[in-house]
Amino acid sequence: MKIVRAKDYQDMSRKAANIISAQVILKPECILGLATGSTPMGAYQQLIKWYEKGDVDFSQVSTFNLDEYVGLSDDDPQSYHYFMRKNFFDHVNIDLAKTHVPDGATKDPESFCKNYDRMIAEAGYPDLQLLGIGNNGHIGFNEPDDHFSAGTHCVDLTESTIQANSRLFEKEEDVPRQAYTMGVQTIMYAHMILVAANGEKKAQAVRDMCFGPVTPSCPASILQLHTNCVVVADEAALSLCPAE
Ligand code: PGA
Asked: Which atom number of ligand 1 is nearest to the Cα of residue 140?
């Protein structure tokens, strides 16, 4: 794992965006695995700025998002489909037909999940997978457990995730209790993984991810076994990690 130290959120966002844009410039038809949440928003804003300046072109890029809440349709403002359009897709020249977000409204979850994995495999797996990390060490919505998950599947969200995500909903009761997520194995198949983390609330999870034992009780810890994983984190998120 390579750790890139950033000063603050803005610096983290710029450094993460730099790595993503380098990937797109090196391989214009690349596959990006994308994430939602507060962490990547600044990186998306930076990428939009560079797109507007003509520095990066997304016309040939395909994307697969990590996760989606169960029961939310594409146009629900709380859905991750909506998040991706509002925060990124609608502002760059990406072909929406090449973007994929799990279907929260599927009536057939089992075949949907299998098919999502099949599409990712047929595409050759993401050249770069962007990840945030949960306060509890989750990646995607792979919550702490007694085993690492394999492919895309439905999960019950933990209380701590429901609480953490309730800031984006009117009331905590409105947060969906389940989500579809790429599994840990699917995530590990990405050719490169970029984890972004900021803020003191992530400090313990970042320490466990980078320096703790590899254990499904901190799903992100498995990233220690990935051969090309970069963690871009700000000072607050790195505050519990050994200095250099
Ligand atoms: P956040 O979520 O970016 O909103 O902090 C990250 C995550 O839960 O993976």
From this structure: 9
55 has catalytic annotation: no
Which pLDDT does position 243 carry in this prediction?
A: 84
Confirm whether pTM is higher than 0.85. yes
Domain count, the chain: 1
Dist. CA 150 → ligand 1 center (Å): 21
Q: Whose CA is nearest to atom 7 of ligand 1?
A: 134
Which atom of ligand 1 is nearest the CA belonging to 35? 9
- Work out the average pLDDT over 156-162: 92
Phi, psi of 65 (to 5 degrees): -85, 155
Region 63-91: mean pLDDT is 96
Domain that holds residue 34: 8-180+190-197+208-228
Domain contains 70? yes
Has residue 158 been placed in a domain? yes
What residues pair up with 196 in beta bridges, in sequence order?
Answer: 232
Alpha-carbon gap, residue 127 to 114, rounded angstroms: 21
Locate 152 and state its tokens: 């895309």
CATH of the domain at 213: 3.40.50.1360
Q: Three-state SS for 201?
A: helix
φ/ψ of residue 136, rounded to 5: -95, 10
